[in-house]
Amino acid sequence: MQNLFLLAAEAAPGEAVTSHNPIIPELGELVYSLIAFAVLIILFKKFGFNAVQKAMADRTKRIRTDLDQAESAKGEAEGILSDYKKQLADAKAESNRIIDEARQQAEKVKADVLESANKEVADLKAKATQDIETARTAALASLQTSVASIAIELAEKVVEKNLDRDTNKRLIDSFIAKVGS
Amino acid sequence: MADDRTAAYAAALFEVAQGEQDLARVEDELFTVANRVRTNDALRDALTDQSLPVDLRQGIVEDLLGGRASPTTTNLVSMIVGAGRAKDLPAIIEGFLERSAGSRSETLAEVTSAVPLDADQQQRLAEALSKRVGHKVSLKVTVDPSIRGGLIAQVGDTVIDGSVRSRLEQLKTQLQESR
């Protein structure tokens, strides 16, 4: 652009200025250029367009295939992801189930141990109560026997002291009277 | 078998004794011997000891009864001991007494008293027991101070216990059972 201005400035002092635009080519040149362009277009259409079109179609097809593959891979990946998620959920559910089972089992064991301990305590208590009752009964019986023995000893002594010949005779007479009545 | 043998010895004793003039004396003496053998462990052990010679055991009988009891009583006891039946002597004598009483249409009544009974008491007791059982009884009295007082009478399977000992035992049982 700067060169164009310089050329315009150089031409200005010597010759008359014509209304010629340096940018716009001459008519002949333009015609030749148009003919050359048309020939180029024709040649391109005849020899290069199909190849370009085919290349474009191939490229489009390849891109579509790639897209399809990508879509398929994405779907597959999503399927795998879904499977993984499902497996993860299943594993989580299974682990929760196992934990629940373990918890229930632990609760059951705890309840069993508690029940067993309670039963053992109850049995021990019952046995202790029974032992105490047995000991009490035995002590009472022993005391009763001792009291009875003492009472009998005293009674025997009283009988020995008072059972003289006359008393014995009265006992014998009383016996004979009762037998004969 | 033992009962049959005992009954056979009792019958043999009765056959021998019934020929005696004083059968009642023989009965009383045999009854006394039976009580001694029943209550005296040392005497019973000596008479039933099979390791002692028969002569020695019969000698014990002679020493105990000779001069005190009638010759018939001594001979009968000696015969039973010599036959090795001293263990069954009380049962044999009891069988003899029952058989002897039966021959007089009487029932044997064994009476235990803490003190000896006089003739009047024995007569009244025999009458009372006869009235009780419905026929005449033959009274045999044993003196046993351990019954302390009163009487025990046994006629057949019937026992009438009016002893002080049994009353004390009843009292003891009642005291032990009462709570």
| Largest beta-sheet characterization of chain B | 4 strands, mixed
What gap, in angstroms, lies between the N and C termini of chain B? 48 Å
Summarize model confidence as the mean pLDDT of chain B: 90
Radius of gyration of chain B: 18 Å
User: Residue share in helices of chain B?
Assistant: 55-70%
Q: Number of helical segments of chain A?
A: 3
Chain-averaged pLDDT of chain A: 85
Structural class of chain B: alpha+beta
Q: List low-pLDDT spans of chain B.
A: none
Helical stretch tally of chain B: 8
What pair of chains forms the biggest interface?
A-B, 28 and 27 residues
From the N-terminal CA to the C-terminal CA of chain A, the straight-line distance is 179 Å
Strand content of chain B: 5-15%
SSE string of chain A: HHH
Principal-axis shape of chain A equals rod-shaped
**Number of E-state strands of chain B:** 4
> Low-confidence parts of chain A lasting 5 or more residues at pLDDT below 50?
4-9, 11-16
Assembly state: heterodimer
The helical percent of chain A reads over 70%
Structural class of chain A: mainly alpha
Task: Please give a structural write-up.
The complex is a heterodimer of chains A (181) and B (179). Chain A has 181 residues and is mainly alpha-helical. Helix content of chain A is 90%, strand content 0%. Chain A is rod-shaped and about 195 Å long. Chain B is α+β, with helices and mostly antiparallel strands and 179 residues long. Chain B has a 4-stranded mixed β-sheet, with helices on both faces. Chain B is globular, with a radius of gyration of 18 Å. Chain B starts with a helix and ends with a helix. Classes of the chains: A mainly alpha (181), B alpha+beta (179). The A-B interface holds A 140-141, 144-145, 147-149, 151-152, 155-156, 159-160, 163, 165, 167-169, 171-180 and B 113-115, 117, 121, 124-125, 127-129, 131-132, 148-151, 153, 160, 162, 164, 168, 171-172, 175-176, 178-179.
